[in-house]
Amino acid sequence: MSAEPDGPEDRLRRFATIWSRAVYPVTSTAATRPEFEERLLPVARRLSEALRARSFDAEAGRAAGAALVEAHCTDPEALSRTLDCVDAYLVLYCGGDGDGETLRARSARLQHAMAAGFAEALRERTLAEQEAVAKAALEAQGVVAQALHATETRFRAVFEGAAIGIGIADLEGNILQVNGALRRMFGLTGQALPGRNVKDWTHPDDAPQTWRLYEELVSGEREHYHLEKAFYRPDGTVLWTNLTVSLLRDADGAPQYQLALMEDTTERRLLNLRLRYEATHDALTGLPNRTFFFERLEKALAAGPGQRFGLCYLDLDGFKTVNDSLGHAAGDRLLVEVADRLQSCATAPGEMVARLGGDEFVALTTGPDTRRTVDELAGRIMNALLAPISVDGRELTVRGSIGIVEGPAGERSAAEVLRSADITMYRAKAAGGNRFELADPEADARAITRHGLTTALPTALDRGEFFIEYQPLVHLGDGSVRGAEALVRWLHPQHGVLSPDRFIPLAEHTGLIVPLGRWVLEQSVRQAREWRDAHGGDALGPLRINVNLSPCQLTHPGLVQDTVEILERTGVTPDALCLEVTESALIGADDDLLKPLRRLAEMGVDIALDDFGTGYSNLANLRRLPVSVLKLDRSFTQSMQQFPVDPVDLKIVEGIVSLAHSLDLAVTVEGVETGAQAEQLRVLGCDTAQGWYYARPGPPERLHKLALVDATG
Questions:
Q1: 574 — alpha (psi -120 to 50), left (phi > 0) or beta?
Q2: Cα gap 157→137, rounded to integer Å
Q3: Which has the minimum average pLDDT: 50-59, 538-547, 627-636?
């Protein structure tokens, strides 16, 4: 077996070779097979470009179909072989690294466009032949008497030898003559059609204007008309044709006959219907796919006044576990069974079910009262999923989360409706799953905002949108400023200043917390150096900077090296830095997680256990943690803002402070808001505090002024 092509051009050439070998045997051309391949190569290139284009270009497919006709590939077998070849090899050789499902859907649409282009080009070629035949017929009837015999002979040859059906009738519709091609279309022998009347050939699928055009023609108001028309054959089957009817006039210009030219399009129509079905239905479940669903949804949203819609967006809970444990084949069988159950839930007029992809399904209901029907539809879906599904001898329990959107038609686009349903479905999943939730515009807005912040995060750091505010750490004994906690803020172009709780969880989820945390650490340490220089060395004592570390940063292998490099680059000693780690991040931490913190502590960097008392950790674990500071959570000291203070709270804080000091740990208290609270904490033995009582987080200049006031006053 030969090696696969190396580059895109080689793969394109291979596809063109396969295509030419498939089609050449049924092509009427004088060219050799290699010459024919060269003719197909640019067509294949355009198909390849259309397959991978950002947006779908149906013209590329239509041009490819027309190119077949131009290359004399007019045999229906040539189209069939071409479509088979494109279906089997276009994505394989020309798809590149694109998403397989998207490329296959694009390939199906290109096949549909190719069939349409082939049909249109063949129709135009046929019409040209028809024009020639009609002209020959007119010329044959208008010649002088002495050439009548020769002309009639030529006409008969054209009439009987034509590949399209030809029939002549009088103005009353009585059929006078038909050729062999037309008789074969109807499956007749001999002269069975003459003697019948055109008006007998009505069909339920006739276009509304069919017989109006006919009456205008036989009355002389129009010269010809063209349309698609169906006929019943004698055996009851349906013949679909491209029908062109022209008016023949006598020498004086008076209407005399009608000439019908028919092209059999039955096979082409069936092919188009098959391609349309494949392009709009899911191959696995047979349900309508995303394309078909969007068509129906857009139609529902464009309905007139008084019409409403209801949409249920379903995602199976834990479906990935089925694929991972039992394999994708078992997952596919599960999806097929789920699809069958959902199909049985949407049988009323105006209801449909579709598969969007993966384990995501949608159900749509329309009508004047969808407020009630959409809830009933969601209930039927949840009930349909109650019974276990048997897959490979295993009984699988199926759970699903549903987001429901309901409203009047004409107010939102299909994309907006589906986005709202998707957001609502994830809200149901976050609430525990196996339930449905109704769309909430405010929740949608929050989710859209979160998504917008998530997408803006990666470039926000590069654009310099983050800045740091500092909240002073005050010694409870003498009231001096001993340092500050660095608190990062985001100056968003649209939303203004955002606090950490709005974007830190997003940064942790996306992984941006590592470069953002490194930036915060370096900026904070540089600020500590500026404070030291502004104080004239150590004359006023060193100002320590506290920087928060997220759980993601703790597990990053470059934490220690980054910290060392920043301290060395800025000339700041390790004892001027304190890294704050939340208690919850260290619950159950093993030695591997604690190793970087131990190395930093050995260098002289202080480690503070932040939010102490909220993580339910074992107090005995404090002995093995490399921490030197406990930061009591504000929940312990809130009651001290009121008088009298709860003695139980006092005992708890006093016990924690005593335990911490016995372990040589300093105690910092957060959330101090009153003088009485500060005094009570001083009496209890707490070392330092921070809170609005002293100062809110602010620019570094304000902390510098506070420190100078303490030093001088």
A1: alpha
A2: 11
A3: 538-547
Q: Which pLDDT belongs to residue 2?
A: 45
Mean pLDDT for the chain? 84
Asked if residues 414 and 297 have their Cβ atoms less than 8 Å apart, the reply is yes
Q: What is the pLDDT of residue 324?
A: 84
Query: Distance (Å, rounded) from C-alpha 166 to C-alpha 155?
Result: 12
**Beta-carbon contacts of residue 403 (< 8 Å; ≥ 6 apart):** 312, 313, 420, 421, 422, 423, 424, 425, 426, 427, 428, 436, 437, 439
- pLDDT score, position 5: 47
Helix, strand, coil shares of the chain, percent, nearest 5, are 55, 20, 25
Tell me the β-bridge partners of 352. Answer: 364
pTM: 0.51
CA distance 296 to 105: 18
Q: Which DSSP helix (H) or strand (E) runs through 356?
A: strand 351-357
By the 8 A CB rule, do 214 and 202 touch?
no
Amino acid 404: pLDDT: 93
Dig out the tokens for 175 from the structure.
């059929």
Work out the average pLDDT over 158-171.
79
3-state secondary structure of 250: coil
User: Quick one: which of 214, 343, 213, 337 has its CA closest to 284?
Assistant: 337
C-alpha 560/C-alpha 568 separation (Å) is: 12
For the chain, percent of residues with pLDDT exceeding 70: 89
Beta bridge partners, 227, equal 243
Among 85-94, 616-625, 683-692, the range scoring the smallest mean pLDDT is: 616-625
Give the Cβ contact number of residue 56 at 10 Å.
15
